[in-house]
Design brief:
This protein is an alpha+beta fold and 131 residues long. The chain has one domain. It has three helices and eight strands, in the order ββαββααββββ. The strands form three sheets. The protein has a four-stranded antiparallel β-sheet with strand order 3-8-7-6. A two-stranded antiparallel ribbon has the order 1-2. It has a two-stranded antiparallel ribbon with strand order 4-5.
Length: 131
């Protein structure tokens, strides 16, 4: 992965581990462990109706690792949302009810099971996929 650091006239040198001069750099990111990446991904609620249709690739695991390290919430949610959209597909929700509707159970190993449900939002008009 390549990153570009732009010169904006200010370099914060209070933390010497993060000081980089402007220019291009190659950043090596190791993929997050499968269980940790899956738990991190499923700990977020996403708008829309989707179910998981494929497992995460090495690139997806690297994106989740970057999301775990992200300093801003916006950057973190962008990475997580892109990964979520790559491994899921839209579903037709049917009628919205007051009770959550089970869509799918995502299993990892022999002891972890994450149920995906359709839950009606407070507005009563739309649903979201959640744990």
């Amino acid at each position: 992965m390549r990153t570009r650091i732009h010169a904006d006239g200010f370099l914060d040198i209070s933390d010497r581990r993060r000081v980089r001069a402007p220019g291009n750099y190659r950043v090596r990111v190791d993929p997050a462990p499968d269980g940790e990446a899956l738990a991190f991904l499923l700990s977020h609620t996403f708008p829309g109706h989707r179910k998981v249709v494929r497992s995460m690739t090495v690139t997806d695991l690297k994106q989740i690792q970057l999301a775990m390290w992200a300093d801003s919430v916006n950057e973190r949610m962008n990475l997580v949302d892109r990964t979520w959209r790559r491994i899921t597909e839209p579903i037709v929700p049917g009628t919205a009810s007051a009770r959550p509707k089970s869509v799918q159970v995502v299993r990892y190993g022999t002891s972890w099971a994450y149920p995906l449900r359709l839950r009606k939002k407070n507005s009563g008009k739309s649903c979201s996929t959640s744990i």
